[in-house]
């Protein structure tokens, strides 16, 4: 879904070449990915990291959309999202209370944007709330209110000269296609200090004389980010082991 096609009476006339493709969620030719998070359900940061990496590989810009923002204090939200500001634009919104939707709408204008993230964070609610704010969308809200039962894996809605792509939740176990030893190349802040590590190919996991570890001890490196990196590294390592048995 998401290939650019010309549809005439449900017949696919032609399929254009894809400019990018994501596997989880399975979409193609998007201009930006929205990673939707919320205070509830509690964010799965490893999933966030995976989505960021997937988009980096495919050259897709990412914005983090923190929904249900009315349920948490702004300082707390800012603290949670601070480590991601270098990789993504951040929006604080509420589909329910109609907060921050104008900023989101102007970011989307003319783009095909895919909403991704855990189930129940409010992806579909956001698509519906945006639709109700925009006069150009025509029958968007009608189409969305067909009810949950008709929600397919991916739904595409016209919006402000672009498109909103709503996806359903996908399993956190779904993996990215990166070798564990390649993971480091997606962490620029790790690479910056790598020349200070004793080993040129340091993965900053258990190597002696590691500059990242030293900075962690000194409190000058983001601990949460490092822990997510290690978790992801271990997961990729595990998966490779399984591939070779
Ligand atoms: N408090 C609050 N609840 C919301 C908000 N947006 C969505 N929800 C609720 O979160 C639940 C999941 O929403 P849904 O759009 O189905 O999530 P999806 O699975 O990501 O598409 C529903 O019960 C919504 O009413 C919000 O801004 N604030
Ligand atoms: Mg949904
Ligand atoms: Zn190191």
Task: Please tell me about this protein's structure.
This protein is an alpha/beta fold. The chain folds into two domains: 5-167, 3-Layer(aba) Sandwich (Rossmann fold); 180-243, Probable gtpase engc, domain 3 (Ribonucleotide Reductase Protein R1, domain 1), CATH 1.10.40.50. Helices cover 33% and strands 18% of the residues. The protein is built from eight helices and ten strands. It has helices at residues 45-58, 74-81, 101-108, 123-133, 140-144, 188-194, 211-218, 223-243, and strands at 5-8, 11-15, 21-22, 27-28, 32-37, 62-66, 89-92, 112-116, 154-159, 162-167. The strands form three sheets. It has a six-stranded mixed sheet with strand order 7-6-5-8-10-9, with helices on both faces. A two-stranded antiparallel sheet has the order 1-2. A two-stranded antiparallel sheet has the order 3-4. Helix 1 (45-58) crosses helix 8 (223-243). The model is unreliable at 5-15 and 134-152 (pLDDT under 50). Bound molecules: guanosine-5'-diphosphate, magnesium ion and zinc ion (ZN). Residues 197, 202, 204, 207, 210-212 line the site of zinc ion.
Round the Cα radius of gyration to an integer and report it.
Answer: 20 Å
Reported CATH architecture of the largest domain: 3-Layer(aba) Sandwich
Strand order of the largest sheet: 7-6-5-8-10-9
Q: Give the CATH topology of the largest domain.
A: Rossmann fold
Round the mean pLDDT to the nearest integer and report it: 80
Total number of helices: 8
Structural class: alpha/beta
């Amino acid at each position: 879904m998401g290939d650019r096609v010309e549809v005439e009476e449900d017949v696919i006339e032609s399929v254009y070449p894809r400019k990018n493709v994501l596997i989880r969620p399975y979409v193609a030719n998007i201009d930006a990915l929205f990673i939707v998070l919320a205070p509830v359900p509690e964010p799965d940061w490893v999933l966030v990291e995976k989505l960021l990496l997937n988009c980096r590989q495919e050259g897709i810009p990412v914005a983090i959309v923190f929904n249900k923002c009315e349920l948490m204090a702004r300082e707390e939200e800012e603290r949670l999202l601070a480590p991601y500001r270098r990789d993504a634009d951040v929006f604080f919104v509420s589909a329910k209370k109609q907060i921050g939707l104008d900023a989101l709408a102007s970011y989307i204008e003319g783009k095909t944007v895919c909403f991704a993230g855990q189930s129940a964070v409010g992806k579909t609610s956001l698509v519906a709330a945006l639709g109700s704010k925009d006069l150009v969308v025509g029958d968007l809200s009608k189409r969305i209110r067909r009810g949950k039962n008709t929600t397919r894996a991916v739904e595409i809605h016209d919006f402000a000269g672009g498109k909103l792509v709503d996806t359903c939740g996908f399993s956190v176990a779904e993996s990215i296609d990166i070798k564990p030893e390649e993971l480091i190349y997606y962490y620029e802040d790790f690479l910056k200090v790598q020349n200070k590590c004793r080993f040129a190919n340091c993965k900053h996991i258990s190597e002696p004389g590691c500059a990242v570890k030293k900075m962690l001890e000194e409190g000058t490196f983001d601990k949460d980010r490092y822990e997510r990196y290690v978790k992801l590294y271990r997961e990729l390592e595990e998966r490779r082991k399984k591939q070779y048995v």
